Amino acid sequence: MSTAMMGSDVAKAMKEHLIQEVIELKEKGIEPCLTIIRVGNREDDLAYERGAKKRMELVGIKCQVLELPENIHQAEFEEAFQKVNEDPKVHGILLFRPLPGNLDEGPVKAMIHPFKDVDCMSDINVARIFSGDEKGFAPCTAEAVMEMLDYYGIDPKGKRVTIVGRSMVVGKPLSMLLLKKHATITICHTRTEDLAGTCRNAEILVAAAGKAKLITKEMVGDGAVVVDVGIHLDESGNLCGDVDFDAVKERASYISPVPKGVGSVTTSVLANHVVRAARYLTTSC
Ligand code: NAD
């Protein structure tokens, strides 16, 4: 069976479209701007930050980083956050989480302007995703999966979709986005009794468990579409996903690799959200 790779073509197509949208905004005197707020220097935050900065630059979005020390006090953290939140030149805010243990994210989740909340940290945006409100911003990774399916013309309507993972960043919001497209969803997690059978039954399988190479060939049905959200370093120090790519690709009709899969689309979705945020903030408030 020939297997199609899903990934960088999507990011490329989104890039062309975003460049045009940014040009249109700039012609109206609006410079879309993302501020990344990073507390401390976690390696995975820094890696995502590099990718996000590069993507924003490619499409013409201004991207600035507010670096805060890991031992910052709660009051100072909230003050710094509010300053960015109130800055009319900033349209999108990305706060890296989890925060260091001494900080509580609750107050800033309640504080963030819903239109600046481009990665869905506030309860308002979560509610919008669950109610299907078009103005909500889904978490970028969950939406990246939808962008991939859409780009390759894979319609989830009526299909059996299994998502492995029930986090608020991927599994749960993705289930809502897929449900909106009329998919029949099963969500698996650590207490699922028959993970292999449930995965094998899926026409579309999304792996977002955060466990390297958890999904083996035996867990994938013939011709299934397999989307891998996981990001890990394998024993040789190379990037890999939640799917045992080399074996599973023999069985899947479409598969997303790691790297150059979902991750490449996630930062494009982030850029898209900043553009939408700039539009909302400059026209409706
Ligand atoms: P998480 O740890 O918050 O959630 C993992 C979920 O998977 C949990 O619901 C858990 O119940 C489930 N799970 C864990 N082990 C399981 C198992 N053996 N069987 C069944 N279910 C299991 O993780 P997350 O933040 O949702 O991230 C998941 C993965 O996606 C990680 O590898 C992360 O690095 C990656 N990620 C990628 C992107 C991207 O842009 N590509 C963005 C965010 C996260």
TrEMBL record:
Q: What is its EC number?
A: 1.5.1.5, 3.5.4.9
- Per UniProt, residues of the Tetrahydrofolate dehydrogenase/cyclohydrolase catalytic domain are 6-119
Query: What Pfam families does the record point to?
Result: THF_DHG_CYH (PF00763), THF_DHG_CYH_C (PF02882)
Q: Which InterPro entries match?
A: THF_DH/CycHdrlase, THF_DH/CycHdrlase_cat_dom, THF_DH/CycHdrlase_NAD-bd_dom
Q: Where does NADP(+) bind?
A: G165, R166, S167, I231
Tell me the pathway.
Answer: One-carbon metabolism; tetrahydrofolate interconversion
Please list the reactions this protein catalyses.
(6R)-5,10-methenyltetrahydrofolate + H2O = (6R)-10-formyltetrahydrofolate + H(+); (6R)-5,10-methylene-5,6,7,8-tetrahydrofolate + NADP(+) = (6R)-5,10-methenyltetrahydrofolate + NADPH
Per UniProt, residues of the Tetrahydrofolate dehydrogenase/cyclohydrolase NAD(P)-binding domain are: 139-279
What's in the keyword line of the UniProt record?
Answer: Amino-acid biosynthesis, Histidine biosynthesis, Hydrolase, Methionine biosynthesis, Multifunctional enzyme, NADP, One-carbon metabolism, Oxidoreductase, Purine biosynthesis
Looking at the record's lineage, which domain of life comes first?
Bacteria
According to its UniProt record, which protein family does this protein belong to?
A: Belongs to the tetrahydrofolate dehydrogenase/cyclohydrolase family.
- Enumerate the HAMAP family for this protein: THF_DHG_CYH (MF_01576)
Q: What is this protein called?
A: Bifunctional protein FolD
* Native source species: Faecalicatena faecalis
